[in-house]
Design brief:
The structure holds two protein chains of two kinds.
Chain A: H1 3-8, H2 14-21, H3 27-39, H4 41-58, H5 69-74, H6 85-142, H7 145-149, H8 153-156
Helix pairs in contact in A: 2-4, 3-4
Chain B: H1 9-28, H2 31-48, H3 57-78, H4 97-104, H5 108-116, H6 120-130, H7 136-143, H8 147-167
Helix pairs in contact in B: 1-2, 1-3, 2-3, 3-7, 6-8, 7-8
The chains are: A mainly alpha, B mainly alpha.
């Protein structure tokens, strides 16, 4: 190798070398890398290392699913958890429906509570009106202007 | 297969379940997570078949299984660190089927362990490229990253994997 060629050869670029191995370079880049591999032992060695790693992964055996697993997905055979994929989807829908039902029940209970409590509140109004009338009568009788500022002075603790 | 060229869900599960499981296992590194990943992926497949445009089915499946895997990883990161079992003696050993299969191929379990050791941003492109046999363009689409980033992550992933394999004595 001449001195000039040393400066012409690009340093090893493993991104390019990796893409070269995966056949993901365009024609121009591919020719350039091929030339570098011929010209520079560092490129050749680097590519060999990458190729070795890549080959190890690509050479891994296909991992077989556990026996019966895939079949359990397309049939109704129960998986160890008792649910197929089809069932799991249904389970999700059931779960959603259950939650919706729970919210509906809470809303119904709240509505029932309002229905029961509101009339009883209404029933308290006459008593309240009576209290006000009694209080106002008391204020009028005593001619106390301060107590008269509070409509229910006695029951609210403003009475003297 | 339906007349519009779109497979039925059952056909996908039956004919491509093995592919899905293999990719899922290489991504997760264990049987239980791989099973969960396949189940969740098939749920998404069923929903997605309504809008699926006939093309590279395995590319589409690889995208789905990758997205499920990444969603799961993100969810796990949000959860607290694993709690140790109260009684470790009662913990069942992992299913041996996949490990046995790996050991039958010699150094496979060591190689899988080295893959597991990679950060997921490098593991995923590597598995998609070298296990699922996807092009850089497919990987870029699946991960929503530029092709240049795929190229960069792949070579860095391979370099890290080589270092891991070296530490484990696989390359000796």
């Amino acid at each position: 190798m001449s001195d000039d060629s040393v400066f012409d050869v690009a340093p090893f670029d493993d991104a390019r070398a990796s893409a070269y191995l995966d056949d993901q370079l365009d024609a121009t880049e591919r020719r350039e890398v091929a030339a570098l591999l011929d010209a520079d032992p560092e490129w050749a060695r680097g590519l060999d290392e990458l190729a070795q790693t890549r080959t190890l992964v690509r050479g891994l055996a296909v991992v077989e699913p556990p026996a019966g697993f895939l079949e359990s997905l397309v049939t109704n055979d129960a998986t160890p958890t008792g649910a197929t994929v089809t069932d799991l989807d249904a389970v999700r829908h059931r779960r959603t429906r259950r939650l919706t039902g729970a919210f509906a029940a809470i809303a119904a209970a709240a509505a029932l509570l309002v229905a029961v409590v509101v009339p009883s509140v209404a029933r308290t109004h006459p008593a309240l009106a009576t209290d006000v009338r009694v209080h106002q009568a008391g204020v009028a009788a005593s001619s106390d202007p301060v107590s008269g500022l509070a409509p229910l002075g006695t029951s609210m603790g403003f009475g003297r | 297969m339906a007349s519009d060229g779109v497979p039925t869900w059952e056909e996908v599960a039956r004919d491509h379940g093995r592919f899905l499981y293999n990719v899922a296992y290489r991504l997760t590194g264990n049987v239980d997570d791989a099973r969960d990943l396949v189940q969740e992926s098939l749920l998404r497949v069923r929903r997605g078949l309504e809008t699926y445009q006939p093309g590279s089915l395995e590319g589409w499946l690889a995208r789905i299984v990758t997205n499920v895997f990444l969603d799961d990883m993100r969810a796990k990161k949000r959860r607290p660190v694993h709690k140790l079992p109260e009684n470790p003696d009662l913990v069942l050993p992992p299913t041996q089927a996949a490990d046995d299969a790996a050991d039958a191929a010699g150094l496979s379990s060591e190689i899988q362990a080295a893959i597991n050791a990679l950060p997921e941003e490098f593991r995923v492109p590597l598995v998609l490229c070298d296990v699922a046999d996807q092009t850089y363009e497919d990987i870029a689409t699946a991960l929503d990253i530029p092709i240049g980033t795929v190229r960069s992550r792949l070579h860095r992933g391979r370099r890290m994997l080589r270092a891991e394999l070296d530490v484990r004595g696989v390359l000796a």
